[in-house]
Records
---
Amino acid sequence: MPIISIPERKAWVLRTHHVDYVIGVDKNGALQHLYWGEKLALSEDYPEADSRQTWIWETDDGNSREETMPWGRRNFAEPGLKVEFADRTRDLVLQFTGAHIENNMLQIDLLDGLKSLQVTASYRLFDEFDLIERSLAVNNKGDGPVCIEQVMSAIWHFPVYPSYRLTYLTGHWGAETQLRREVLHEGKKVIEARRGITGHNNNPFFAVDFGEAAEESGLVYFGGLAFSGHWKMVAERTPYQTLQLAAGIHDFDFRWLLQPGEAFNTPVCVGGYTAGGFGDASRKLHGYQQKYVLRNGGELRKILYNSWEATYFDVNEENQKQLAEKAAKLGVERFVVDDGWFGKRNDDNAGLGDWYVNKTKFPNGLTPLIDYVKSLGMDFGIWIEPEMVNPDSDLYRLHPDWVYHFPDRPRTEGRNQLVLNLARDDVRTFVYQAVEELLSTHEISFIKWDMNRYFSEPGWPSAEAGRDREIWVRHVHALYDIWQRLQDKHPHVQFESCAGGGGRVDMGIMRFADQFWTSDNTDALDRLRIQWGYSHAYNSKSMVCWVTETVNYMNGRRIPLKFRFHSAMMGTLGIGMDLNQLSPQEMEEAAGYVAQYKQIRPIVQEGLCYRLSPPEQSDLTSMQYVGRDGQEAAVFVFRHAQHFGHPALPVRPRGLEPFTRYRNVETGEVRSGQAWMSRGILLELTGDYDSALIRLYKMN
């Protein structure tokens, strides 16, 4: 039984394969955190709910470790729930009223009896990955309205240690998911997004250790928030040597009006624990995502070609057919037409919102191109950006009130576009119908759904009184609803989440997305750092990586084709370069890499990921994938720049069976797994931007 009730203590042990997470009710009826760590043998091993330290200026409730952390009495920490009642009372006291266990789910009911506000804290266990999904439901059972000012999905409490270290992902457009680690001192460390989408600058992932964990060893607590809009995480270290981390919807500019009888449900926050370091933490998240979160998680992702960098907006039937023919020769499985196929879309100044085929570029519509692509053995995909509108569009001229705006303020444009207000029923209906018609009238198998700006002037003038600040949540819910309805009607269509690169990557949209566009930066060297950080929080199957031009627009580097392909083969492979510029020899070389990727695709997309050598540690970066069946391992090695004639450092694989023999597919050399891992592999990597792919195959 994964959930053990201890009735005499009003406590519950949430037990996974290796971990116990324990909560209990104290003498005041509050739900307290008791323990999180390795499994313990006896019920008396767990702390009591009333065993908190008190101080002269901090009573036991002031030093509380409540699971929901309501703002009331003398709870001074970052609130898990803050409300205002109809009589302007802003004090919330939640007391235990009941518990419900069903399979791997525990629900704890709490009630503010004076105000008839019920809160249900939910815990769902994923035993094989040592993970817990947490969420809150707030139900107004009173007679008057309640205003929710802040609501967190989870408050995570950590054991008392002398030092805490936070790992998180930060960056900006073109440099997403950059890994950072910092020691936490007294006060708050806030990681947030308050621009309407998940964001390029921060990502809703966290890991906490005690300053001693390494890649494959040490105690690590980790997790992420499943939400695609306004969010924040607050790591708060107190002067009393405790640490809590609150994760949920951002309270900035947020209010939610809860009328009598209404309920509000938070997004899920997942958390886990491991004694196996940051690598094991990532592998647990990857496995959980592939099995329970990622749409079509059990299917391999196809190799795609996207025509954007070849034609930009100058797309037409003839040049797309030429590119499709070349892509098919490489072994590509999916051909995607990017921006420029619709409306009066000749540049980024016009056309967004007018989702009809441009008859100048495609006189006979899209069907002849789609038929040609399919005759070449590929399926067809297309780019759209339905949450946006250009002021120079038929849609905007007809419905200027459909965008977020304040009546007396200018409407700030980003990339010459404005954001449609999906909180409105009519806008949501329009977006759904526009995309549904596109899918119903064409044999489209893939949608690249883009979103190329943040929110500004987030007004909703026609909103019901008191509901205008709900847009940060309603927009996300509307997006999820639209994707769900489209997928219910067109289950064969795969969706890629894109927001100017990796601006909308999270476990919320992952339930509806088959894959993510990781970054607009396709420089193969930069991508090593972006993909390294990405791998800490998300699985490789979801990570789309393109091979693009020899000289990349981002940094002007000239990088060999082999290095570019190897960098892109560590996720879901895509090709975005202008194939018309490739020589016959380059086409043959590229086709060889595509064929090689198909051989190792199950290992990369579904295997266990081992990070061997980080980009910033030396001139060598190395990443390894081991098949779920343990039969084969693929090791990618990249040398950025050789200095002083030094040979490349040996690469030491991980995750092999020590006493089993493995053959190096490239050289034929045979060693035991322990020998490969201990002695390492010496490679002749010289000069700048050299790389290698090593395949180790288990021998029977």
---
Amino acid sequence: MTFRADLLALKDRLMRRSRAFWLGAAGLTLGAGFIAASMTYSWFFSDLPKVPDAAALWVVNREPASTFIDRDGKVLAVRGPRYGEAVSLNALPAHVVQAFLAAEDKRFFEHSGVDQAAIARAAAANIGAGRTVQGGSTITQQLVKNLFLSPEQTIKRKLQEAMLSLRIEKQLTKDEILALYLNRIFLGQNSYGIDAAAHRYFSKHASDLTLPEAALLAALPKAPSQLDPTKSNDNARARRNVVLDRMVEAGFITPQVAASAKTTPIVLVSPETYPDLGYAVDMAEARAREIVGPGVPDLVIELTIDRKLQEAAENAVKSTMSERGPDADASQAGFVALDSGNQIIAMVGGLSYAQSQFNRTRDAKRQPGSAFKTIVYAAAFEQGLRPAAVRVDRDTWIGNWHPENFGGDHIGPVTLTTAFAKSLNTVAAQIGQEIGPRAMVNMGERLGIRSPLEPNVSLSLGVSEVNLLELTGAYSVFRAEGVRREPYIIASIKDSKGKTLYTHVAASDTQVIEPRVAQDMTLLLQSVVTAGTGRRASLGEREVGGKTGTSQNFRDAWFIGFTADITAGAWVGNDDDSPMKRVTGGAIPAEIWKKFMEKAHEDAPLRPLPTGPRLELSPKDQALLALYEDLALAFARVGYTPSSELASVQR
């Protein structure tokens, strides 16, 4: 056969073309496959959350929550989910950790985040049953689901769950993952984490959980609502016993121990009932967020509130208002109490927080009426007047202003002590004119009044609006012999891991008025309760100082007073500023105040109030003055008005 080079060349070209074709086809196929794989990966994982560091995982996607405790560490209130304090594995009994491992992931320390064997076992069980009877998720996967992913059951979410689980297993140790899981798992009843659940169901710390209790809590992640022991004791007991059996299978406990635990009845505590602390909690939470700033989702806030005294305040307000309020056309009240360090130990901002969240102790600005006279007299004493000084209760005009006494009577010459005790408006107005409006404003501001005070002579009768908390704080200065301390409600703030973020440190004492002035005012305030308009606030042998206040047309009624231990204030009125039926500060407010103080001072020793000397008059002069006052009052009742010449009588 004749050799033909042209045919060989043709064949070679055809082979090269064929190879190029198939190589191109393979390249196109690989490229298409790569693109498809990239697109598939992107679709499944492009929105995959990043795994933060270990510290951030404790708070990631955590709904803000605040737990409020009293000075003894007992919970007063909870806002948002309840997380409890972070608990380390070392602080937990072994049977607590073992119960959760047996119930949820007995191969936890053997897999790398995804347990193929468990998945295969669950698939076989579910196919055999024709329904879902078993899950294959590891503890790591459950943690990922709780921290990062939605609850939807899709292939995409399951793949993301597996991918994140593998990443977390590379980033954290097994103990770190298990601790996170136990502190963040939802266990029903608004409780997240083992410590929160231990408190909710058993009123104890997680470190004190018994084996049966631990098994019960370990049963809950499977179906917290369905297995809620507060709703279905039988379902919870059955699942608890399953957990105990699994602990036996895992070698954590013996069959005998499990059998004994199964016979233990489930004893739950009732849901905690808190005082009506909504008003105090609102105030404290807003202040706490100001202090710590953003970025701390959950706080443990120690309040200065005393649980027993808070309940006493609520009972005093609500019982008195239910008895006396309707007939008096009085629909609202507020009450606040401060201890000797000016900690807020009780606060009632209204009759029902559920119906109205408006805090009438802090946010309501109302006219204090005669309750402001305390500030007026203090300014006068600072300028040299004394309790025994005499002024004339008479028809008084100051320019076009005509201040009148309650009832319209005048009794002539009186000591300032008597004028204050009887709450004589004419004398207070005269004093206000003598010392000047600026002196009254200055004294109010030094005592802690932050509401604007109008520098007018009429301020002497309390026409500028203030709130109950600041006025009560101002009165506490007299009990403290002139030292002012800012009222406060937060003692400390911690995060859920126990780290202290803030501790209240009392500022150095500020002497805003001389002790002599404070003592003279305390003397006058005592006279109100012993012989004046505040008699209903008397606590018998216990020394009390206080002042009544009633605004124009009976729109507001106040009583602010103190013992050697507690300063407290009560306000009664209507939110729409409508008049009450002749309610004065010496009536309903004084009754509320007294009810609270009687309860607050049960078994407390009698302690005297710091006062200056009594009336600086001889016994003879005191007797004569009392006679003149009685005669003047008798003349007033028959229509006699003291002559203007008496206006010059002073001491």
---
Amino acid sequence: MGYLHLKEIQMENFKSFKGEVVIPFEVGFTGITGPNGSGKSNCGDALQFVLGAKSSKSLRAENVGQLIFNGGNRGKAAKNCKVTLVFDNPKDTSGNRRLKVDTDEVLLTRTVRLGRKGNSNSSYYLNERPSTATEFRRLLTGAGARGDGYNIVLQGDVTHLATMTDRARRKVLEDVAGVTSYDDEIRKANRQRDKVEQYLEQITLLEDEINKRIKTLSKEREQAMKYRELQETLETARRTLMHSRHRSRLEEIELVTDERGNYIVRLSGIGEEIEADNKQELSIEDELAGIQRQLNEVLGDDGKKLGDQQRRLEVEVETRKDRISGLKEDIDDAGDEQEVLAAEQIEAQQALTAHEESLDSARHTLKKAEEDLQGAAEVEEEARSALDSGDKVVHELNRAFGKATESVEKTQDVANKAILKVGAETQNVEFLHQQLADLETSLDESRLNRDDLLLQGEELDANAPEQDRTKLAQELARIQRQERGLLDDVQRSEEQLRDAEMSLVRARGELENRSGSNTGMARAVKAVLGLRDSGEVRGVLGSMSELCAPKDSRDEEALAYAMGGGMNSIVVRDDETAAQCISWLRKNKAGRATFLPLNRLQSRRSGGRAVMVSREPGVVGFASDLLEYDNSIELAVMNVVLSQQMLPVAT
């Protein structure tokens, strides 16, 4: 990456500089000399003013309005001020620039303008186009230049660096090297990764539960479909039986209708015969009456007697005829009845034969229907038995599921307690971070006040009254005492922060060891190792728990807490083996596991803070130094140790 060179500072009405002033900086070393009050320190203030100081107090002003030229003793005060930094921004051999602006020269400008009510308005310009302080800070941070950084060494900074504690000096070195920002990014990325893994584990558990429920519902659906088919078969048999009965009734009705029609035809014929006989009888009676009149005329009295006798005889004859006709009628009726009975017998015999045939057919149909019904009943009984057995299995599964649910709830309670513990430790760490930041801010302000007093002491005339120097010395001693107290507070806060971080690491390790995710991961690891042992998958070296062992058994518990779930990671030779194992686990729903392909792993280093801590008294060393393993898996061990936010193991 190309170098970053400040070519010149362009100032206009800034502090003690009236009008436009340009200060060039040649390549190499440039020095600015002059008597007291000539504006040497104001050049450094102008540089900090554009780069972005923490506050106006660091620029020796109560507010940004006091940075505008006030006119001096006789001049007129200005209404605005402007400072421009001109940087040389060449390309390096790879075509990259230090400042991420595609120009060979970069102008960073900041202006302050007084409003009508005396308020101050600050503006930023990048290459003469409007910009913001955020864009300035992002651009300068990418180039390694900050207004509050140590790339600008002000008066008193060297003395301050020499007199500060080792811990504070180490923090300054980490800040200058950029290690602190990387450590913060690593912690943030690890927190996001932990959340993603937690979400993935919850999704996996939910997916397994849904799959089990789908299997149970599929079995119940098959049983319900079988029961519905049996029910439809039974309804079909019932409909067939009712249809056969209906046909039998229709045939009987047709037979009775035919018999009734025959009887009506016969009755009409008999009525015609009776009517003809009555007419013939009337004609015979008329002839007899005429013969009787002729006899009465011929015979006279004897004829009357004979007529009376004849009448008596006729009456008797009629009576006997009536009796004969009655008997004949009885005989005829008996014959008719016999014929009718014979005909009815024949018809009844025919109907009986037809009925017997239809009865045999109905019986055959009924027998077949009963057989079908019996078969349907047997199938229904088998279905009911299957349903009963299925209910028993479902009941047993429900009991097992209930026990598993209770176990999961207990484990979840333990996990929740561990999560609460982790949350409490995290809040404690954040609180200590905030407290440490507040203390550092107070310390910086105290240092700035001390520097201002030192500058004021240097600028005092030698002929100034002794009383002022005494007051300044007393104020300086008070501020130094306050600084020492703040340094002690910072040291105590850092110790509390380190203890809280160690507690947080232990709590996270305990959470990983007790969480339900270990169960699914252990099952997946066992399955992959089984594939390796059976020879189905080649290139699986083993899990970290198999390939690593503590050199000293006394460090075993500390290493287990520190590495946590990383002990279940599986080391493979290449990413193809890892992809093959992942595909097998997904296909067989055997859980999930973390794979470390040796051909994809990159060398990683420990954070600057961890290196500093490892040198303190009472620290045994890094976890990677306390483990015994083959050199071929060194990259895998370093990745597991560093991915767990590993701190040095302390006694």
